[in-house]
């Protein structure tokens, strides 16, 4: 059993974020999730926060620190998509996705780093995507935001690495969520053909990797990009 930590998962009210929060609870950690609406899984503390607003992020952290103690693990998972071909993509389609997915992660990690620096311990996990490095048609905004997390994690590693703080990126591929379930059967079959594993991942498979990289055993891994994509993005 690894040391019990205080964990924040942003966007922990559904999908991968929900599964990540569940896994940390299962391992006995003190877990809070941020959400704009809805709630995290049983055993978590849910706080309202919008990652596009620094004051909102600060208030959420303050509430969690008062209830659960200093935050030692932060999982920046909150994200949005606005898929659109480049020629039709508006400035707002691009900037709003970057502001949530990339700048939102910056706001969350900056706030978390205060306590981590004081404690000389911290785990930062940024949830990217296979399309961050592999690319995806109609996803210039999303891919750019998710690729940006890699540079962010590596800069954090160089800046904070000597203080017992690691920063890593987990890059999921296709995951069985409400979103993928809505895809037509033929489309799902087409996607599965390009995945060497021949299937989508379960959210729990991503969650277990996140929990491990945030744990005691992964203290010498930092600035890494860990794909959980069944081999889809190999080498990207």
UniProtKB/TrEMBL annotation:
Residues 5-178 form the Ketoreductase domain. Keywords: Oxidoreductase. InterPro entries: KR_dom (IPR057326), NAD(P)-bd_dom_sf (IPR036291), SDR (IPR050259), SDR_fam (IPR002347). It comes from the Bacteria. GO terms for molecular function: oxidoreductase activity. SMART domains: PKS_KR. Pfam families: adh_short_C2. NCBIfam families: PRK12826.1-2. Belongs to the short-chain dehydrogenases/reductases (SDR) family. This is SDR family oxidoreductase.
């Amino acid at each position: 059993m690894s040391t019990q930590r205080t964990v924040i998962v942003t966007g922990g009210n559904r999908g991968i974020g929900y599964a990540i929060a569940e896994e940390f609870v299962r391992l006995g950690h003190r877990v809070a999730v941020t959400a704009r609406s809805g709630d995290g899984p049983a055993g978590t503390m849910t706080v309202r926060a919008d990652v596009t607003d620094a004051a909102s992020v600060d208030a959420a952290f303050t509430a969690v620190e008062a209830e659960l103690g200093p935050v030692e693990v932060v999982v920046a998972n909150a994200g949005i998509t606005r898929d659109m071909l480049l020629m039709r993509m508006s400035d707002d389609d691009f900037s709003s996705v970057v502001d949530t997915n990339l700048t939102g992660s910056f706001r969350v990690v900056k706030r978390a780093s205060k306590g981590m620096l004081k404690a000389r311990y911290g785990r930062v996990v940024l949830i990217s995507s296979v399309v961050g490095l592999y690319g995806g048609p109609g996803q210039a905004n999303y891919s750019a935001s998710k690729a940006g997390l890699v540079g962010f994690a590596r800069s954090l590693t160089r800046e904070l690495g000597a203080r017992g703080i690691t920063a890593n990126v987990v890059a999921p591929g296709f995951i069985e969520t409400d979103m993928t379930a809505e895809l037509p059967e033929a489309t799902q079959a087409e996607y599965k053909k390009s995945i060497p594993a021949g299937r989508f991942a379960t959210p729990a498979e991503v969650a277990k990797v996140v929990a491990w990289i945030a744990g005691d055993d992964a203290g010498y891994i930092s600035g890494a990009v860990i794909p959980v994509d069944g081999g889809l993005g190999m080498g990207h």
